[in-house]
């Protein structure tokens, strides 16, 4: 380095001080932002070491004509910062894309260095007229969409979306009713067949009612069920018809009855 | 180059020669290019190699890095002169525009390769806070320009103490 040496007064000029303070503050802000961002990235990367745990879903029937998928989501936040505005929403559609049901939770805050379990209860209505009715009698693939939002490190909002297909085993898969010809003593043979492809045991009463074309109840028959997962059910029973009541052109109405709930199955027309 | 006249006794300072400043500025180019061009391009290429494409293109990052490096080098060489203030303003203004450009693309969504998972990220607040950095530097450039206009060479003893 070369150049002449000069002298100058010792007091620092105010404008120079202001400019230096501004540059210093600028550098300080930059350093703080870099350190903060690095700490948030590191803190968030800790999440990958303890990914969310989704418990296995239990399948059950609700008293209000719904199938209930119950499970839980366990989240662990080992990072330095809380996870804020945490929310989750799932929507379920059948294979044709028809909306069946949804669930959600939040917004919630997951404190740093903490673990929390969030319930996931999905109610799918299975009324005989709605799209969910097919869940009872047709095994199929369901389209499940999952959306989650959260804010990391106070200023980094993030969201995830997962769309995938999950197989669904129907509790009364391939449900079929077969009505024989009326005998001279006023009875018809009714055959019920289905396979339980759900993960629950069906324990209750299956009642089939014959409704004539004019709406009059001709008679009914009941089967006691104790059908485990994967088991086939195939039984025939005689059904006594009311005198003068003709089932032809009518319909068969089936109900699955337990002490806790009564579940209607899709009706079938009698030729 | 400033060459002040007789000055009362006080601080001593020594302004490096133009050749020396150019030499040092050339050496500064290496870390500057690594910081403003090499590192961002490497990060973008790494992400693209993992099928994650950020909204910022490599061409934009490269051009911006070259401009920032060039302005920073010119600013360093011109530090003893009156051009230092305006070059500081130009450099900060360019970085400000660059950060504004990034701000416009501060929400980002990508699909994790080989999965049904889509991730949405937003770093708008961070970029807004980052705007403070060039804004403060720009103000400093304005103050230095005013100082150089009012009292040329006033800052030299503090920038180049002997």
Strand element count of chain B: 3
CA-based gyration radius of chain A: 33 Å
Our count of helices of chain B gives 6
- Distance from N terminus to C terminus of chain A (CA atoms, Å) equals 107 Å
Strand content of chain A: over 45%
Gyration radius of chain B, in Å: 21 Å
Describe this structure in words.
The complex is a heterodimer of chains A (271) and B (162). Chain A is mainly beta and 271 residues long. Chain A folds into 2 domains: 48-168, Immunoglobulin-like; 173-269, Immunoglobulin-like, CATH 2.60.40. Helices cover 13% and strands 54% of the residues of chain A. In chain A, strands 2, 3, 4 and 7 form a 4-stranded antiparallel sheet that branches. A 4-stranded antiparallel sheet of chain A has the order 6-5-8-9, with no helix packed on it. Chain B has 162 residues and is mainly α. Chain B is built from 6 helices and 3 strands; from the N terminus they run βαααββααα. In chain B, strands 2-3 form a two-stranded antiparallel sheet. The longest helix of chain B is centred in the first third of the chain and has 32 residues, at 18-49. Chain B is elongated. The A-B interface holds A 1-10, 12-13, 15-16, 18-20, 22-23, 25-27, 29-30, 33, 37, 155-164 and B 3-4, 7-17, 20, 116-123, 125-126, 129-130, 132-134, 136-137, 139-141, 143-144, 146-147, 150-151, 154-158, 162.
Summarize the structure.
Chain A has 271 residues and is mainly beta. Chain A has helices at residues 14-45, 134-137; strands spanning 5-8, 53-54, 58-62, 66-77, 83-93, 99-110, 114-125, 140-152, 156-168, 173-179, 187-195, 202-211, 217-227, 232-240, 251-257, 262-269. Chain A folds into two domains: 48-168, Sandwich (Immunoglobulin-like), CATH 2.60.40.10; 173-269, Immunoglobulin-like (Sandwich).
């Amino acid at each position: 380095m070369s150049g002449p040496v000069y002298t100058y007064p010792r007091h620092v000029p105010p404008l120079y001080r202001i400019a230096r303070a501004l540059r210093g503050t600028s550098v300080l802000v930059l350093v703080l932002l870099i350190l903060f961002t690095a700490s948030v990235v590191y803190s968030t990367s800790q999440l990958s070491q303890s990914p969310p745990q989704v418990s296995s879903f239990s399948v059950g029937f609700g008293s209000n004509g719904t199938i209930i998928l119950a499970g839980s989501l366990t989240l662990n936040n080992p990072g330095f910062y809380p996870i804020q505005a945490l929310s989750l929403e799932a929507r379920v559609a059948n294979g044709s894309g028809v909306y069946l049901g949804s669930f959600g939770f939040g917004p919630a805050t997951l404190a740093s260095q903490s673990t929390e379990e969030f319930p996931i209860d999905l109610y799918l209505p299975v009324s005989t007229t709605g799209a969910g009715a097919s869940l009872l009698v047709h095994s199929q693939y369901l389209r499940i969409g999952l959306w989650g939002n959260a804010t990391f490190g106070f200023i980094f909002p993030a969201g995830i979306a997962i769309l995938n297909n999950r197989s669904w085993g129907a509790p009364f898969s391939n449900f079929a009713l077969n009505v024989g010809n009326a005998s001279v003593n006023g009875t018809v043979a009714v055959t019920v067949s289905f396979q339980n492809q759900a993960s629950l045991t069906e324990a209750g009463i299956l009642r089939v009612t014959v409704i004539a074309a004019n709406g009059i109840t001709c008679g009914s028959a009941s089967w006691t069920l104790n059908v485990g997962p994967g088991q086939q059910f195939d039984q025939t029973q005689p059904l006594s018809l009311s005198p003068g009541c003709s089932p032809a052109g009518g319909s068969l109405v089936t109900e699955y009855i337990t002490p806790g709930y009564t579940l209607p199955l899709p009706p079938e027309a009698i030729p | 180059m400033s060459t002040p006249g007789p000055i009362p006794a006080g601080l001593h300072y020594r302004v490096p020669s133009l050749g020396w400043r150019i030499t040092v500025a050339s050496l500064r180019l290496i870390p500057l290019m690594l910081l403003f061009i090499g590192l961002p391009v490497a990060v973008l290429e790494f992400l693209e190699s993992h099928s994650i494409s950020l909204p910022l293109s490599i061409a934009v990052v490269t051009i911006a890095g070259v401009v920032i490096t060039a302005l920073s080098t010119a600013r360093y060489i011109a530090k003893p002169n009156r051009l230092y203030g305006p070059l500081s303003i130009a450099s900060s203004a360019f970085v400000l525009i660059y950060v504004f450009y990034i701000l416009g693309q501060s929400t980002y969504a990508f699909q994790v390769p080989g999965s049904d998972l889509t991730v949405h990220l937003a770093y708008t607040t961070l970029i807004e806070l980052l705007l403070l950095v060039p804004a403060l530097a720009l103000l400093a450039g304005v103050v230095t320009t005013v100082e150089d206009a009012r009292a040329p060479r006033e800052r030299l003893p503090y920038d180049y103490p002997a």
